[in-house]
Design a protein that fits this description.
Elements lengths: L1 H40 L4 E3 L2 E5 L14 E4 L12 E5 L16 E10 L2 E5 L9
Antiparallel strand pairs: 1-2, 2-3, 4-5, 5-6
Length: 132
């Protein structure tokens, strides 16, 4: 009879642990979904625990980063950046694509080709010219 009580207690503990784990997973998924909805409505990359996620929309970085790739990135100090680093930034109203269309507000992934006193010069590895 004592063995039945041990089995029953073990089953209750296991059931409780499974319920708690399921609840935690549910809350994390719910928070992630809310975060996705808010970020997308503000045209920002999805961010979770200090890391941001985005899907590459163009071929400007091919063959390093392919169109449709999911990228993960985080904020870093400007002083830690070097020529050759790939960076992610939000385009301002002056940033235009090859046809002259403004990409203001879009998330851009390009490589640093020069660091100047005025800032960074970037270029998509598949682009012919550097960004303005």
């Amino acid at each position: 009879m004592a063995e039945n009580n041990n089995v029953s207690t073990t089953k209750r503990i296991f059931s409780t642990v499974c319920t708690v784990i399921s609840a935690v997973i549910f809350v994390i998924v719910a928070l992630l979904l809310v975060n996705i909805i808010v970020c997308r409505s503000q045209n920002k990359p999805v961010s979770f625990f200090g890391y941001s996620f985005s899907v590459v929309q163009t071929n400007s970085m091919e063959d390093e980063i392919m169109t449709g790739d999911l990228i993960v990135f985080k904020k870093v100090d400007f002083s830690s950046l070097n020529v050759g680093d790939n960076i992610v930034f939000r385009a301002d109203e002056n940033f235009k694509d090859g046809s002259g269309k403004s990409l203001a507000g879009y998330t851009i992934v390009h490589k640093i080709i020069e660091i100047t006193d005025d800032g960074l010069k970037t270029k998509g590895v598949n682009n012919y010219s550097a960004d303005d």
